[in-house]
Amino acid sequence: MNRDTLKNLIAAGVAGDTILLKELAQSAAEQLGDRELMAEVDEIFGLSRELPIGLAPLKPKKSLVDLKLPPEVAVIVEEFMVEVRHAEALKRRKLDPRHKALLIGPPGNGKTVLATAIAVELGLPAYMVRYDDLISKTPGETSRNLLRLFSYAARQPSMLFFDEFDALGRERDNDQESGEMKRVVSTLLVQLDDVPSHVVCMAATNHAGMLDSAIWRRFNIRIELPRPKLERFAPFMQDEFKRYGFEPDTSKVDLLDAAMRIQPDHFSDAELFTRNVMRAFVVAEDRGTPITIEDAIARELDTWANGQTRLV
Fold first, then answer.
1. CA gap 134, 149 in Å, rounded
2. Is the same domain home to 217 and 256?
3. In this structure, is residue 310 part of a structural domain?
4. pLDDT class for 129, splitting at 50, 70, 90?
5. CA–CA distances in Å: residue 120 to residues 54, 79, 123, 259
């Protein structure tokens, strides 16, 4: 804490300005990087534990083992997690731990699921940034929301996940972007620079070319998720059925053949297919006309073949 901060703290206390006193105390604790002190300051001022505007819990769906990542992706993910786990050792040697990763790839290929799986593996609470709440029409409010969001995350080891990151981090040279959004990008850059290493920042984008060039430099790990190969869909669907408590008889149904017939572009397509199968199975059972899971798969394959793909 510097001399001016101490003087301002004393002045705010003498004047009885609890709002300013709280802000100065929080700022001092954050500058010291003392998470225990930050928590104590929160308790002293009775701060709400509610999540700030624009932040929502991100619930895990699968483990890294379940994802069956391509080997080249799995290696990068493992290196990233190793550095996060050994961040303190790196800092003692004056090395900056890499704790910010950008996930790049087409929609529906598992970027969000990968981020949550990494959070589970690292034992971190994960939060998703919700742009519909974060972005405000009031000038300057979006930047303030960003500041509160990063400040909240910094209180403890955690993960911040920005999905569809190009919606927030667009190139500032783009003439179509408003002055307000350009200021938001500038605020975001500062926050990404200052975010402590115990906060893992992950962002996902389908349009990497739209990101501001300075944003690229803030992410020291970039993970490209390729479009899944056809043979990866069969084990994926098998795992999806297991989540519902079923395991199709492989002597009666070939999930690789099913994948070839539905021709999924992304994992989300295969997930939709298994979800539709389970819906048909449950409804038939509830109507008193039960069918086997294999029959449900066959019926859904016919539906897809007739071009009647259900979208949700």
1. 9
2. no
3. no
4. very high
5. 22, 16, 5, 29
